[in-house]
Amino acid sequence: MKAAVYKGRRRLSVEDVSTPSPGPDQVLVRVKYCAICGTDVHGFIYDAVPPGTVLGHEYCGTIAEVGSGVRGWTVGDRVVGGGGSAPPGVGNVVRTDPRYNFRTMGFAGKPLRAYAEYVVMEGWEPVAIPDGVSDEAAALCEPCAVAVHAVRISDLRLGDTVAVLGGGPIGLFCLQTARAAGAGKVFVSEPAPARQEAARLLGADAVIDPLQDDVVERVVSLTGGIGPDVVFDCAGAASTLDQAMNMVRRGGQVVLVALAWEKTAVLPVDWIAREIKLQASFSSLPEDWRIALDLMRSGKVSVAPMLSEDSFIPLEDIQQAFESLVKPSTQLQMVVKLRGD
Q: What is the mean pLDDT of residues 168-178?
């Protein structure tokens, strides 16, 4: 089968590799779409990925083969690449290691993922795609689940005002999931024009260009001088965490969703007296995936403004795609198309 193998030093090579065979308790998934995640791009930028790794964790496909000990799956079933509930005694190191460090540990472990035509999963790992959710939308279930998780662990209450810093895919999902959870108004800060337009199409009450306006002053003004109740930092830029802490209301909450790979400057004396709260949010739980799929099925979350014909690329173009995402300009979401049916 074809797979994009990371070779080190920001180089991906599309190669012929052996098609994996599922064990008795595993399934083989034929990948249809695999979205390019910002986390993978960061691994590419900082050369944090072990050479020989096949990345890709935002994907959907169909069951191609079922291990002899697996029950509940049939060849041809549509699935997303994660979200299943682990059986008792099987732990996720992200949740169980008391000193887990994503920078040093996040790309270790599974060497073959979904920038490939086939991937093996444990029989309990996939989640079925419900009727009414397209394959294109299902490929974005994982980032939607990340946003669902962030909203669910936040202090967001019915009618609250929310600011989202960063209008990439996870920021746009935070916009929509916060609205679904009862946010009264949602403001989005984003410098890229294509992402600004997507935020408008998805119902943001105001979209602010941080390159043109003082985003803190603008958001505070939009909230009558008080500040938003909850701020989701989905950008992870050098300035956004401090901006979030500065704009949130007294006693409000900042939820850090983005993975910042470089040191972030903050000046606590500016906001410490307002006794604000900082909540880190990382990845997702099985229930977040199911909620994400249900939000897509019900129409409360849409991927339409994030995707166009230009969003889909063949596996052979993955090196160029990663290079373009190092400093994205017009790109919003890029998806590797592994098969045409």
A: 97
pLDDT digits (tens, 9 = 90+) for 188-243: 999 999 999 999 999 999 999 999 999 999 999 999 999 999 999 999 999 999 99
CA distances 176 to 146, 169, 190, 272, 304, Å, are 12, 11, 15, 30, 12
Q: Which long-range contacts (CB under 8 A, 24 or more apart) does 300-305 make?
A: 300/176, 300/179, 300/180, 301/144, 301/173, 301/176, 301/177, 301/180, 302/176, 302/202, 303/136, 303/137, 303/140, 303/333, 304/201, 305/172, 305/197, 305/198, 305/201, 305/202, 305/332
DSSP H helix total and E strand total for the chain: 11, 15
For residues 65 and 201, what is the distance between their CA atoms, to the nearest angstrom?
Answer: 40
Reported as a pLDDT band with limits 50, 70 and 90, residue 108 is confident
Phi then psi dihedrals of residue 254, to 5 deg: -110, 130
Distance CA 107, CA 100 (A): 12
Q: Contact 145/70 with Cβ under 8 angstroms?
A: no
For the cut 90, the answer to whether the pLDDT of residue 111 exceeds it is: no
Q: Hey, what are 49's tokens?
A: 């990925």
Query: What is the residue type of 298?
Result: S
- Residues 241 and 268 sit within 8 Å (Cβ to Cβ): no
pLDDT at 329: 66
Each residue's pLDDT tens digit, 235-264 = 999 999 999 999 999 999 999 999 999 999
User: Shortest CA distance to 217 belongs to which of 247, 187, 193?
Assistant: 247
List the domains of the chain with CATH numbers. 2-140+303-337 (3.90.180.10), 144-280 (3.40.50.720)
State the maximum Cα–Cα separation within the chain, in Å, rounded to a whole number.
Answer: 63
- The whole-angstrom separation of Cα 157 and Cα 139 is 29
